[in-house]
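Forum: Protein Structure Q&A
Topic: Joint prediction for protein chains with partners

I've read a bunch of threads here and the consensus seems to be that you should model interacting components together rather than docking separate models afterwards. I'd like to see that in practice. Below is the full input, 1612 residues plus whatever partners are listed. Could one of the regulars post the assembled result?
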Amino acid sequence: MIQDLEALYQDLHAHPELSFEEHRTAAEVSRRARDLGYETTEGVGRTGVVARLASGRGPTVLLRADFDALPVTERTGLPYASRNEGVMHACGHDVHVTCLLGTMALLARARDRWSGTVLAVFQPAEELGRGARAMVDDGLYARFGTPVVVLGQHVMAIPAGTVACHPGLAFAATDALKVRMFGRGAHASMPEAAIDPVVMAAATVMRLQTVVSREIASMDRAVVTVGALRAGTKDNIIPDEAELQLNIRTYTPEVRETVLGAVERIVRGEAVAAGAQQEPEISTLHTFPPMVNDEDACVRTLAAIGEVIGHERLTDPGASSGSEDVGVFGTSANVPVCYWLLGGVDPDVHAEAEAAGTRNRDIPQNHSPFFAPVMRPTLTDGVTALTSAALAWLEPAPRPASP
Amino acid sequence: MIQDLEALYQDLHAHPELSFEEHRTAAEVSRRARDLGYETTEGVGRTGVVARLASGRGPTVLLRADFDALPVTERTGLPYASRNEGVMHACGHDVHVTCLLGTMALLARARDRWSGTVLAVFQPAEELGRGARAMVDDGLYARFGTPVVVLGQHVMAIPAGTVACHPGLAFAATDALKVRMFGRGAHASMPEAAIDPVVMAAATVMRLQTVVSREIASMDRAVVTVGALRAGTKDNIIPDEAELQLNIRTYTPEVRETVLGAVERIVRGEAVAAGAQQEPEISTLHTFPPMVNDEDACVRTLAAIGEVIGHERLTDPGASSGSEDVGVFGTSANVPVCYWLLGGVDPDVHAEAEAAGTRNRDIPQNHSPFFAPVMRPTLTDGVTALTSAALAWLEPAPRPASP
Amino acid sequence: MIQDLEALYQDLHAHPELSFEEHRTAAEVSRRARDLGYETTEGVGRTGVVARLASGRGPTVLLRADFDALPVTERTGLPYASRNEGVMHACGHDVHVTCLLGTMALLARARDRWSGTVLAVFQPAEELGRGARAMVDDGLYARFGTPVVVLGQHVMAIPAGTVACHPGLAFAATDALKVRMFGRGAHASMPEAAIDPVVMAAATVMRLQTVVSREIASMDRAVVTVGALRAGTKDNIIPDEAELQLNIRTYTPEVRETVLGAVERIVRGEAVAAGAQQEPEISTLHTFPPMVNDEDACVRTLAAIGEVIGHERLTDPGASSGSEDVGVFGTSANVPVCYWLLGGVDPDVHAEAEAAGTRNRDIPQNHSPFFAPVMRPTLTDGVTALTSAALAWLEPAPRPASP
Amino acid sequence: MIQDLEALYQDLHAHPELSFEEHRTAAEVSRRARDLGYETTEGVGRTGVVARLASGRGPTVLLRADFDALPVTERTGLPYASRNEGVMHACGHDVHVTCLLGTMALLARARDRWSGTVLAVFQPAEELGRGARAMVDDGLYARFGTPVVVLGQHVMAIPAGTVACHPGLAFAATDALKVRMFGRGAHASMPEAAIDPVVMAAATVMRLQTVVSREIASMDRAVVTVGALRAGTKDNIIPDEAELQLNIRTYTPEVRETVLGAVERIVRGEAVAAGAQQEPEISTLHTFPPMVNDEDACVRTLAAIGEVIGHERLTDPGASSGSEDVGVFGTSANVPVCYWLLGGVDPDVHAEAEAAGTRNRDIPQNHSPFFAPVMRPTLTDGVTALTSAALAWLEPAPRPASP
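Posted by a regular:
Agreed with the consensus. Here's the joint model:
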């Protein structure tokens, strides 16, 4: 089976698709799900896929895998690297799909050992924070039933062979903003005729650093990243405007409000300092709510996973600065979520980098063009964890009456 | 004839082409030049066109018009605005072509009144500073003869009806640089795993302002513009690198050396401060030498122009911060150049803005997406000036012997 | 007795003295300690005072109050505001001295109820992080005996009536650095002859913001403050150098190393970018180790305090970003420390500001020129807490044999 | 006589005094002027001195020397270096005084060869731009007569043996501003409770660089220097405010207005971006009008100087970025001014540095702590130039009637 998983993974990895454009992936997933005996529905929440397998009465358990990729140019040099120029599974969603399909196969094969309904949810557009909401709004629960729990996992740059889960507030809230700053273009030789938006944007980037360094208490947590800054097309033309894309992570509503207020104040103040004659435009690209793991659900789920992979391989990583919209599946139906991290880095490599104090530097993190989880034991561990977790919530099948 | 000029101008304006891609323009120019009776050669210096008309013995006079456009999205709203999305004659080279063709028509018609050779040179890729060099290197003078003078003009945002010429050092030297700064990408939520190239680039832009503000004496002149800054594609990915495009104007070799040295020092210093693990790459996009108007040639040429348009309409604008590669035609053959500016702004609009002290703000300058010279009297003035100038250097035709 | 405490407090507050210059304070403390029957020694660790009271056999308990003030110009407008221009008890050490003297009075009066030795330590120069070390190095323990525990408290801008204590790592490590950046002076009108240290320092301050915003994981904690920046004396002279004073807070050796490394890299990189011809000088002004509260000692001490003031008035504030050298008394003798925070803000004012979300803005914090703890119930609470704590570690006096 | 001049110069140099505190200098000057036979008045314009010598009828000629020093700590290492800690004749006013006294001696001795009145004006507080105005406002002309011309000189870091004079606009206008930016202080470990004025000031300094780099045409001239930046006293206290001192040089009213407007806009915008709750305060420290040399007066004066020192040693340095209030003596009486620069650098040293391209780096300029004019031939040249100039405006004495 591991060969099947690896072949599937390599195929998915080689064919990444951007958010809400996961057409090939959706078709592939559907085909395979149907082959496994699942009732399959495509187009849920634009490009999402729902696959359902019932086995007698009992609870519905939602297993979620997100399946979109990122606008990153892959630089891993792997034989199965992306064939879609400029698009890459740099966040490992291909691992999630592979493991969920593997789990679906096991559960289908072991159908006589459990009772209830497995709801496999392949979600689009996680990177935009919009896919879970789109599926829920498309009638997910009305059409396919409400689960008792939402389970899922995310591959991360932690040692393969480990599963990490933080009960409670586990992932940050995200606010992604687009900021347009307006100057006035002119010939590069005549800055006096321009209001230079490149300088305006650069001053803004420098000042934005002070939000975290000066306005947030050191015991609070926040991240303000300018992920993209684009202005101008040519050396000899001062452009009319500059565009910044910001990604903001916070953990509490108070800190979120402080950060968003400071960002807006700085953007507007820097435009004033630059003499801009048009107000900057600040718009929301997407937002993620903070993601909260249900504490009881975690206890139950992790007990089952630990039973199989060994309790010593479970860790608590603390709250992550990452964001996830998996929580939307829970909050919208008021059901608990348990979502964990799956190790994807060769443990020896990890240990070495840790010892050298160069972990962050030497191990490509999610979203890096070099991000490359090892297939073994990541894929089988992911299948094992997800299957154990699902079985912890499905009911054991009633023993057949003895003849 | 003015209708012809305007129709020609509108056609050129509506079909701008980027540097070294001026195929339609070259074909159009060739066709018209041939119709006027000129021997015409295309493909000189890649896309340049040379048109030649001899009339007896006498000096060769080179009349030059550049004909490439810019990667600017036109926003003038004119009925004859660019039909090529993202490309615009924002520097007025379409005026230059129109006026040279108009002059060629007049000179062809008046062929019996002068003696010598008219060499009309339609130059590509002035915006890159490479077209004049390309034509010279393609054997311009060996193939078409060496002129006694190089004449040309540039439409500018000064009052239409005026001709402005600065003898001596008239246009700045330009150095256009591309700077790549290398960081290390990571997920936006984990800046600690990244070396953020957006911040590195922003700090560099701010520091580059000090080259002019602190390192150049106030009596010297220099401009350092960052015309383009591009880093990242998405809010939630810290990119691997940032790219800056710089445009630098200087007037003396000493100041040029100081500025280039300071720019390099700052770029490298900021990379060090950022902890970059790869040196920045600084490469030259293009350079223009300073352009020097021959003083004697200016006296002779301007006398002729003033005779026709009125001496009171001639002004000396001082040295411009603009750059021009027209000088290459002179220095490579060691012949004098006289190059002047042609007014293109409605004089009333200009006077009003001047009175309000808002000239730079209210009148779109060259390279602006709103740049729009008025056709009248700009086009006829341009023809008049260039024709008068040419006749000042051609010999008068010998009087026909009386029968 | 409250009147006595208040009179003492007001006298101390009106006569603040800088670190290692606490001569009047030391004399006043000595006089009062002797009046209470304590053996008193001045000049321990330059200006420190040790007062000792033994009562039979039993453990020695060290009670510590720091007594230096800050170079701050008081702006409270209080009738008992500082009479020493430019010096202020802006950190509340006058509260500590008052409460320790009050405790000493109670313990002296109740001498028959306990057995052991009270070692009251009045420490100089806490603000420099050097006073505790100076006293220890001056033979504190050899001369006056080694205690079984070190107890102390710090008044803070939390509600009066509460006592806050965080067992474990309670206060950050501090590194205070002086950075001298060297340029080259010149007349203000000739920046081209200078290497401007004002710009160099400003660029450095901006870049230093990125240490916390970009180089530290959001789950780690660090503060990098430039508390002082001084360059130049006059508008028309570009000075030769600039001086920055940095204050850095960290909680783990790894983060401390990262931050110190980044600060040095940035300072040196910015000097390179500026073209400085002399390397910056970075020197250490003072350092504080992180301060660790012994968990068992806290349980024992807080139980005793809670017994008297009410357990509901005890809180755990988490680790503070402040620093303290009280820990040196513990680590140098390998004995446990329990150090807590004493509320000093009117609880109604605090609640109001908390409700309005303006706590940090409206309530003057330690080191502010407006810092002004309320005397009631702060002073009596401080005496109560410290006395209860001391008695928890002294032995109860043996019951007198019945006749 | 050269020995006398050198002794005088060394004495003045060793005893520099700040603006409006030139008490010893004034007394010394008065004593010597009286010894030479001049009527002398002290206390004109606070600390100024006027010395008058009439010889028959004829025009009054004003010879001006400024005599204040600067708050600079001398680092020349000269045997006659400043004995007043922190004060230095770093602008060479001691040369001016020495040369004027030398000239006064020559004119007194040659009293029978000229007719008219010599008005020697020793002006205080030139560095503040207030001394000339103070003397005029104190009734200079009403009390001592109105001159036909104002003559004076300034020693500069140009080759000794040369005299440089630019007719017309010769010195820039100066505006010196004090900017106070208000934040909110707090403990260094709690930036979230502060509005950090150090960061606010640093961001402002960086943004101010863009006034010259982006808002002034390269053909215009302007200098914006932040000569002093002072905030905070201690590493662990975030201060309440920061103070900047700016020195601004411009040459035309239009550019001056643009620069002052941009500075104010930037200061206010940066305060907004910082979230300052109090508007910055911008106040004027002093201003100098631009100084205009009368063209005719220069022709007459320089002819006389050239006659004596050799016309080949006269140069035109162009307009200086320096400022001078000597012009106030001319404009307030509507009389012409001729003011020139006197070389003070060893010509060989100058030539060497010039050849190496390191003039600005290797030769200490005015206001540098290393500024040290060579005494020979500077002092005698200064006396010669000033005496020749004075005699060019005084009338020759009528020939004595023959007996």
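The mean pLDDT of chain B is 94.
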